[in-house]
Design brief:
globular; alpha/beta; ten-stranded mixed β-sheet; 21 strands
Amino acid sequence: MRIDIKLAELKQVYFLGIGGIGMSALARWFLQNGFPVAGYDKTESPLTKTLVEEGMNIHYSDDVSLIPSICLENPAACLFIYTPAIPADHIEKNFLITAGITLWKRSQILGWMTEQIPTLAVAGTHGKTTTSSLLTHLLVHANKNVTAFLGGITQNYGTNFIPNKGQENIVSVVEADEYDRSFLTLHPQAAVVTSTDADHLDIYGAAEQVLESFQLFVDQIKPGGFFIQKAGLTLQGPAGSKTFGIDQGDYQAQNIRIENHRMVFDMVYPGGRITDIPMRIPGFHNIENALAAAALAMYHGLTPEEVKDGIASFKGVKRRFEYHVETAEHVFIDDYAHHPTEISACLKSVKALYPNEKLVAIFQPHLFSRTRDFLTEFGESLAIADEIYLLDIYPARELPIPGIDSNLLLEKIPSQNKQVISKTAFIERMKLEKPKLLVTMGAGDIDLLLNDLKMAVTS
């Protein structure tokens, strides 16, 4: 189904789930281009507060009467956008559907918006937020006219949305989300796939279907376009497709070393080598993300010097290996990791940077179904920590699954120093222990503990 409404005729944009990181970026695009924006979200957050301050009308009660009147009186002049995370029994959503009003997914709107703009898309079950944010920074740092829709808050710009400046030579960077097959609305000029690990099995059902969806995404790259994937992946891209990896692939990271708790590497690319690239964001996985971003940036015309300068000045993304304390006495890192592969990458990187310190970690499992599907893998990855704590499972969009809880996951961790704990009890424990090296992980609401944990560790 195509979107028929013209921008010149648009009177109002309404979002169901406006507080999501991707939805808020789209909302900002409309607002900055002169369209009134309103929306619903389940709970107020720092991000929704910021959106309200910018001029959006947001409510937190599932109440049809709070939908802007123009949307109900003249729906043909409005655009209704929703996130699949909105539950099936949502009152506003069902009212609009019953009224015959078409609800568009964010991905459909994004595909519509970028049809006329050359698009660099970043996909993958892990790494896409950091990679797309770094790619955006490389382009902005090199003075390219870029508009970007990201899945995280960049530290350099304090936002998940970068607006273009004028209409000349625009390039769009899009974080291509595989959840609910959303990325299949996009037809990028160039794309990267960072990983195709099984995830979102509550949507896909099986790992084979995840891989099939990624292949369909790659098939939509425009004729003559560019594709690069992590070495070892098996996706079939257009002629001239490339790979990247540590000590393997067409774009390689070599000579990786740690200097003052920071990583430095050389990048070998077709036709040349960039030496001594310093990374402000640590982690072996982030070196791989940097290779992917550099490849797309060089495809768009950046020089090796611009790539090196851009990587060196990239500060990272909030909740992606983010330092909250970094002193000689204490290090506290927070990460969005919520899949076994991400947890393993995070904890191994921390161990490499601080090999002589006891690593204390706390993890908030995200989704009952994901916990069930990867119980053994979660246990193995969490065991990398020297001391591991588990919060209760964050349900997000799901109802509880009988028998699936954090105590079951705890049994799968082959470690002695492990415990299921409440948020309050963990904060009190940290006040007493004051560990030198602490890592928090999870995609739920564990980030609400960060300020209290920072005080607990350092005061």
